[in-house]
Amino acid sequence: MRRALLRLGLPRDPAATRYLSAFLVSAVVTVMAVRALLAATGYPQVGGEHLHLSHVLWGGLAMALAFVLLFSFLGPVTRPFAAVLGGIGFGLFVDEIGKFVTSDYDYFYAPTATLVYLVIVGFALLSEALHGRRPPTPQEYLAAAADAAVAGIAGGFSPRARRHAHKLLERAGDVRGRDEVAALLDAVVDDRDELPDPTTAVADFVVRTLHHLVRARWVPTLAVVVLLGTAAGAVWRVVQHEDASGLVLGGVLVGAGLTLALCIGGLVLVGGDRERGYRWFRRAVLVSLLVTQVFLFRLDEWGASIGLVVDLLVLGLLAAEIDVQRRAREE
């Protein structure tokens, strides 16, 4: 598939994961903020007595503006803003999914939280399939360096932008076209003015924080303990819930059981191969996200968001630990 995309002139952007993460995080935050705001204000009807300006309209407008930015400007500069703006628009759109799957246009349709969660998870899995399984090829790094040069030709390079472009070129290695792209980068003039990149700023802060945390050797272990505690808590909540159906109970039990089994496998492996062991812990978190939390959302609606946040924090810590171990192995 990767070679087919390259033959079709579709190199992947090495920064795509950051943009897609910003898109999905913006969407989730928007959904939660809208729900909280509407609940606090008594669900007002914007537009008066005879009109209702549904926020799905504002969501469509925001997504359209994101497309306008992407279609209007060359280079990577507008992509962070388009990712955030598009995510906000998508959050406003998907929040009203209950209105479009019910015959009575019901915003309060009970499984709405589950549907929103499945949509977000679906996009996350698509992102993982496109970018998470295989690292960028040298040709893709070279294409990204040339793409960075597009913005530099017009407005110059700030020190940060120049370092980033040369890092991409360095990762491309000795491939055809490298010397030409290097000459193009060297021809770009210096210019300290640049638009801020919110996605990079947030991503760098998160990465630095997580890497700082995993330096304390007990933090990753605590993350695994918290993961197991979350799985046990999910089972307890379902058992205690009077309205839990057999399907929900079975789904949570299966998810918790798989999480436990993967954690045990990770504990067995982590002594001999720390990186491999933590990859098993990462799989345990993914099972919790893709199985256990799905059924909990069906049972507890928005209250299951707490478990989702915990799982995401644990996933971030484990990813940071795996990255530290990978870098140590490469060095």
How would you characterize this protein structure?
- With 331 residues, the protein is an all-alpha fold.
- The model has no long low-confidence stretch (mean pLDDT 84).
- It has three domains: 2-132, no CATH class; 138-194, no CATH class; 215-330.
- α6 (112-132) packs antiparallel against α13, α7 runs antiparallel to α8 and α10 packs across α14.
- It has 14 helices and no strands.
Helical content class:
over 70%
Structural class, from helix and strand content?
Answer: mainly alpha
Largest sheet: none
Order of helices and strands: HHHHHHHHHHHHHH
Number of strands: 0
Whole-number count of domains: 3
Low-confidence stretches: none
Report the end-to-end length measured between terminal Cα atoms.
Answer: 30 Å
Strand content: under 5%
Write down the overall mean pLDDT. 84
The radius of gyration over CA amounts to 23 Å
**Total number of helical segments?**
14
Lay out the secondary structure:
Elements: H1 2-7, H2 16-41, H3 55-72, H4 79-94, H5 97-100, H6 112-132, H7 138-155, H8 159-172, H9 178-187, H10 198-214, H11 218-240, H12 246-270, H13 274-300, H14 305-330
Helix pairs in contact: 2-4, 2-6, 3-4, 6-13, 7-8, 7-9, 8-9, 10-14, 11-12, 11-13, 11-14, 12-13, 13-14
